[in-house]
Amino acid sequence: MVDVGLVGRNGSLPGMGAIRSVLVVDDSRLQRRILVGSLRKWGFEVIEAESGEAAMAICAGDLPDLVLSDWVMPGMSGLEFCTAFRGLNAERYSYFILLTSKSEKNEIAQGLDAGADDFLIKPVNADELRARISAGGRILTMQRELSEKNRLIATALGDLERAHEAIDKDLIQARKIQESLVPDLTRKFGSSRVSLLLKPCGHIGGDLVGMFAPGPDHVGFYSIDVSGHGITSAMMTARLGGYLSSQYFDQNVAMEHRYGGRFALRPPDEVARTLNTRLLADGGIEEYFTMVYCTADLRSGAVRIVQAGHPHPLILRRGGGVEFAGQGGLPVGLLSEAVFTQHSLTLRPGDRLLLYSDGFTECRLADGRMLEPEGLVDLVRACDPDQDGSRLLDELFLRLTRIMSPEHGLDDDVSATLFDYGGG
User: Fold this and answer.
1) Contacts from 276-281 at CB under 8 Å and sequence distance 24+?
2) Mean pLDDT score, 184-207
3) Dihedral over alpha carbons 196, 199, 205, 211 (to 10 degrees)
């Protein structure tokens, strides 16, 4: 805005806030006096230059808001001065009006190409000059408002980038903490083995897999998928990792104390009920999770299973047969009256039991369809059956990435637990 002192003085121009200083460039002293007289009467600060070279020297120190320059001058012409003026690369834009007796379209095009904003035909009419300056003032006002908004946006983006970098560092550290919940990706128990796969779709995820054994004859293993994604789901997996700790059996809800400091595995259905009660007892927690938890007798191959809303486990028979197991069930932490049913199956030496999250079966393929359980069976059958559990899981995930949609990519956590039964 033009300051109050200028608005009320000698008919100064309204709406001229962005134009305070004007540079008049003309080799004719008379023309300069006529222009300068009008401009000062309208309240502008006016600087004079008798040539393009002199004008460039002035502009090198401080740019005016508006330039009125004659086109035809000895030495540097107004057109050459305009080109050089635009080459200063100043942070602040100045409005440039060329004064000319030329009216041909090709000459006007030359002036626009050189960087001129407007033209006035000589001799200059005072009313037209006022109108052109007024238009230039409006344009400069909008341009400077836009520049200020861009500056604020750039500052905000810089702040966001720094905040993002800080969050990114925290998430990387959080991933390391989450990875510590699964210290071993494969472990032998006599002639049997449990192998784990955990592939979060971001820095951190809501899937959890694990295993633990209180003695040489029994092992417990599980696959968990917490609802939602991101930080809250990851925090829930951290909590569940404590409830099902493979290192601190006295804190593990799947263990019960026995005489002499020994531990034994609780029945899977009892473990699901305990987790359900604990989760619902904590107010403010909206997350729930699906789970398959199994206990295996390593002597007989007897496996007890509780399935709580998780995909049906897959039995991979030694002879090549594939069959689904489980009876469904409700997720954990959803309903206080939920019933968790336990069932049993028997594995023979060489059989495998695969637990997996819906990151496999709900993965989007290149044609837009989901993999589905049947597609997972095909994927398993395509893998080399003679390789160990860890390599089979790695190959299974690799094959999944090869057929997934490039557009969707890995949009959910992918995890699996594979139990290889070697016999008692």
Assistant:
1) 276/332, 276/333, 276/336, 276/338, 276/340, 277/336, 278/243, 278/253, 279/332, 279/333, 280/333, 280/336
2) 90
3) 0
Q: Are 295 and 255 in contact (CB under 8 A)?
A: no
d(CA 254, CA 241): 12
**For the chain, how many helices (H) and strands (E)?**
11, 18
Look at the pTM and tell me if it is higher than 0.85.
no
Q: Token pair for residue 69?
A: 């320059």
Is the pLDDT reported for residue 206 higher than 90?
Answer: no
Contacts of 15 (CB under 8 A, 6+ apart): 2, 134, 137, 138, 141
User: In terms of C-beta density within 10 A (0-12 exposed, 13-18 middle, 19 or more buried), how is residue 134 classed?
Assistant: middle
Structural domains in the chain, CATH included, are 4-149 (3.40.50.2300), 180-420 (3.60.40.10)
Radius of gyration over every alpha carbon of the chain, rounded to an integer in angstroms: 39
Residue 326 pLDDT: 86
* Cis, bond preceding 183 (omega within 30 deg of 0): no
Query: For the purposes of burial, counting CB atoms within 10 Å of the CB of 294, is it exposed (0-12), middle (13-18) or buried (19 or more)?
Result: buried
Give the strands of the sheet with 302-308, arranged side by side. 207-212, 218-226, 289-297, 302-308, 342-346
- Give the helix/strand (H/E) hosting 207: strand 207-212
DSSP code at position 364: B
User: Three-class SS of residue 43?
Assistant: coil
DSSP secondary structure string for all residues of 332-356: BTS-TT----EEEEEPPTT-EEEEE
Name which of 231, 232, 225 is nearest 362 in CA terms.
Answer: 225
Residue pLDDT, tens place only, 251-284: 999 999 888 889 999 999 999 999 999 999 877 6
Cβ neighbours of residue 152 closer than 8 Å, sequence gap 6 or more: none
Contact 204, 231 (CB under 8 A): yes
Question: What is the residue-wise DSSP string for 68-109?
Answer: EEES--SSS-HHHHHHHHHTT--SS--EEEEEES---HHHHH
